[in-house]
């Protein structure tokens, strides 16, 4: 087996078990908060807001360190070790703290979940995307295995939750042990040129990003479009389970639905590179925005489990297109030396800023006007920002110089 194929399969396996660990411990998170910890919609919103705040604190740090160390696997190893303790953390630390004091629990939980999952995923994705460019395999085909890992865990999560939520947490920890074994087996060679390129990254380079209006326009798209799908997803399981005769039935069916959705997402992740290469990165981001607006608005209009399930499945189309498009958009328009910073700050960080602001607002709206009316508000917001982004995101013909833009910026600073 060639080096490229070997790395593809090992990193695909890493994606699979990372998402398996995340799904097992987090896919029914809002249900766990509501049914096991007995938090209200507003309190749940505070939890998600705290998670987002800690994640956004870590994302710039992860991004800078990742670009500075280049292709070294230190960050992935750190995250893998951290995840081994996810089960004991939920059972013996997080749950008891939330029952004792919601704010204290939110802070401690936000620190752990932000570092391990919510910021960690960005660091992992940007690292594997770098490897895919070096060893010439399509990132989307590797990321597909992450979706399959999430689906595999989610398929059983609802059933296991009804037996005992703690089972899911222990399963997550066992999966994380496999992660550690995989990352220990991976060896990446760095050339002198690659080491010099990584060493050349400075904090000044990162600061110069914020002088680029095109970078700000991208973050406007992310905050107005991308972050709202995460806000929509946060308490969706609570709404979905309420549509069934019993919560237990709703939890189980949601597990099946989420699993089916992510299997579709995995298939679309395989096809998304073809779509993005065909229509272009900017047009793909706009397409994903329109699909998202349709899904969220539709969730506020349809009635019953079948209608809402159909709307939820559209997520399987939009997310792969958006993820592939964002990497290709960044590579086409900005300096690839800063690829991790660009992704973790321009995409992940901006998403968490939006989520930290919108989560408590959405939680209060769920409590006061209900889920369906809140979905209409969220969906219309996405639609407006998507239309705005048609005029603000860079088209290929408008940025022929591409990557040198950031390098040349130093001349005007």
Could you explain how this protein is built, in words?
Helix content is 85%, strand content 0%. The protein has helices at residues 3-26, 29-36, 41-69, 74-83, 86-100, 102-118, 120-135, 139-163, 165-185, 192-199, 203-209, 213-234, 236-241, 247-279, 281-301, 304-313, 315-333, 339-369, 371-392, 404-409. The model is unreliable at 398-413 (pLDDT under 50).
List the SSEs and their pairings.
Layout: H1 3-26, H2 29-36, H3 41-69, H4 74-83, H5 86-100, H6 102-118, H7 120-135, H8 139-163, H9 165-185, H10 192-199, H11 203-209, H12 213-234, H13 236-241, H14 247-279, H15 281-301, H16 304-313, H17 315-333, H18 339-369, H19 371-392, H20 404-409
The total strand number stands at 0
Secondary structure: helix percent: over 70%
Q: What class would the helix/strand composition place it in? A: mainly alpha
Main sheet summary:
none
First-residue to last-residue Cα separation:
49 Å
Q: Into which percentage range does the β-strand content fall?
A: under 5%
> What's the shape?
globular
Give the C-alpha Rg. Answer: 20 Å
Which blocks of ≥5 consecutive residues have pLDDT under 50?
398-413
Average of the residue pLDDT scores = 84
Order of helices and strands, N to C?
HHHHHHHHHHHHHHHHHHHH
Tally the helices: what do you get?
20
Protein traits:
mainly alpha; globular; disordered C terminus; 413 residues
Can I get a quick summary?
The chain is mainly alpha-helical. The chain contains 20 helices and no strands.
């Amino acid at each position: 087996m060639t080096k490229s194929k070997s790395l593809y399969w090992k990193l695909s396996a890493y994606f699979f078990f990372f998402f398996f660990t995340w799904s097992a411990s987090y896919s029914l998170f809002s249900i766990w908060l509501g049914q096991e910890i007995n938090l209200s919609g507003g309190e749940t919103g505070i939890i998600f807001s705290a998670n987002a705040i800690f994640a956004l604190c870590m994302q710039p740090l992860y991004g800078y360190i990742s670009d500075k160390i280049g292709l070294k696997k230190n960050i992935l190893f750190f995250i893998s070790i951290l995840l081994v303790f996810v089960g004991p953390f939920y059972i013996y630390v997080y749950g008891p703290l939330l029952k004792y004091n919601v704010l204290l629990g939110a802070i401690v939980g936000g620190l752990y979940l932000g570092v391990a999952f919510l910021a960690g995923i960005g660091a992992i994705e940007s690292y594997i995307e770098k490897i895919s460019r070096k060893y010439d395999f399509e990132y989307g085909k590797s990321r597909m295995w992450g979706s399959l890992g999430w689906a595999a865990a989610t398929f059983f999560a609802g059933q296991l939750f009804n037996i005992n939520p703690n089972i899911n947490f222990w399963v997550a920890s066992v999966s994380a042990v496999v992660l550690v074994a995989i990352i220990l087996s991976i060896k990446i060679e760095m050339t002198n040129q690659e080491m010099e390129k990584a060493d050349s990254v400075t904090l000044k380079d990162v600061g110069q990003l914020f002088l680029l209006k095109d970078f700000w326009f991208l973050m406007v798209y992310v905050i107005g479009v991308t972050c709202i799908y995460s806000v929509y997803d946060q308490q969706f399981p609570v709404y979905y389970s309420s549509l069934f005769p019993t919560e237990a039935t709703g939890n189980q069916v949601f597990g099946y639905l989420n699993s089916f959705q992510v299997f579709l997402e995995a298939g679309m992740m395989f096809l998304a590179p073809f779509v993005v290469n065909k229509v272009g990165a900017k047009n793909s981001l706009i397409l994903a925005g329109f699909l998202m607006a349709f899904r969220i608005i539709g969730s506020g209009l349809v009635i019953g489990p079948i209608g809402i399930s159909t709307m939820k499945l559209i997520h399987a189309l939009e997310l792969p297109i958006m993820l592939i498009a964002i990497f290709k958009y960044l590579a086409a328009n900005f300096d690839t030396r800063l690829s991790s910073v660009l992704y973790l700050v321009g995409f992940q960080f901006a998403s968490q800023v939006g989520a930290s602001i919108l989560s408590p607002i959405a939680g209060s709206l769920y409590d006061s006007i209900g889920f369906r009316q809140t979905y209409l508000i969220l969906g219309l917001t996405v639609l407006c920002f998507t239309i705005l982004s048609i005029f603000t995101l860079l088209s290929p013909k408008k940025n022929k110089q591409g990557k040198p833009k950031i390098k040349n910026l130093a001349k005007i600073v």
